[in-house]
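In this supplementary section we document a worked example of the pipeline. Step one takes a protein sequence of length 311 as its only input; no multiple sequence alignment statistics are reported here. Step two produces a three-dimensional model, which step three serialises into structure tokens for compact storage. The input and output of this example are shown verbatim.
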Amino acid sequence: MRAITDESLDIREVPVPSPLKGDVLIRVDFAGINRADLSQVAGSYPPPPGASNILGLEVSGHRVDTGERVMALLSSGGYADYVAVPGGQVMPVPDTIDQAHAAAIPESLATAWSNLADVLRVGDGTTVLIQGGSGSLGTIAVQLARELGATVIATAGGRKRCRAIEGLGATAVDHDDGLVEQVRELAPDGVDAILNIMGADVGELLPLLAVDGRIAVIALQGGAVSDVNLGRMMVKRLSIHGTTLRGRPTQQKESIVRAAADFALPRFADGRMTAHVAESFPLEKVAAAFAYVKQSKPFGKVILDVGTGRG
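The serialised model returned by step three reads:
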């Protein structure tokens, strides 16, 4: 089968994976591109022990055994014609969603759910600040937080992207135009939770939290070091959580996928939540797709069309 590994962005021929007990073999239609894939190619985010070095953390496709349309959360292996994945990380694709948009859901949904619902305890009566609201994760996270009952504030760059975020149900703030001041004006008593993708700005954002506020750091796009005022944390009983999804045990990931799917799939099916695809590239154009992700700040997910070019 065709596959793209972290050794190069060229298509190579590798064996079709052999499913282990409990695995599902999927014939891939589309694969979602995540910044973790770019980091893996750069050598800063290796796959977990035992995982393939084939890139790709999410796919849509068809089960080989039943032909059912499915989408799945992966540890690796999505940039290929076939992938084997634990059955508990596989979700059915709602009838109202096509395969391209289905590929934009699994990783972002599982990440958003594990942080917003489990770590940050977002729900009715809470206010949450989501960084990067127009990105592949952010577009899902904004909608999920809204459906959980929260008041959502989300960041983006530029008026056009801010307007698009507001269409998802959030109040948008331009991160290049005094983010802290804008959030303070919108939430003078502080926000209850922050979904952070920058890392280095955690210390600057802590004053925006209300008493007993929580912040989850899920990416380090701005750097891994931050100056944190521990006294402020103690007085306001604040908490900082660092989380990742990819390296968790299979049982944990399956539990997250089940809970996220139970809540969100009916909402995707009836249109209350939507997956946003910014652009689609053929598998052989993965280098161009990576460049697009780096340079163009896409609204939503960039995906690879794997099935169309298959022989």
